[in-house]
Write a structure and sequence with these properties.
Helix content: over 70%
Largest sheet: none
Protein name: Pilus assembly protein
Mean pLDDT: 87
Strand content: under 5%
Low-confidence stretches: none
Number of helices: 2
Shape: rod-shaped
């Protein structure tokens, strides 16, 4: 039992999983920050284009 406990404590297999979880959380967080930073300015441009196109008449 003592040998098994030593192997369990020395095993680093789960550490890789924790690293990937932390890395994935960081990427998701950065993507959220980028989305928030870009959604305002691009939303304003989209609204301006939409308003401009609504006032134009389409003819043949």
């Amino acid at each position: 039992m003592k040998e098994r406990s030593k192997r369990f404590v020395a095993d680093e297999g789960g550490a890789v999983t924790v690293d990937w979880v932390v890395l994935t959380a960081a990427v998701v967080g950065l993507a959220g920050i980028a989305w928030d930073a870009l959604s305002g300015p691009t939303g304003n441009v989209a609204s301006g284009v939409s308003n401009y196109l609504e006032t134009k008449e389409v003819t043949d």
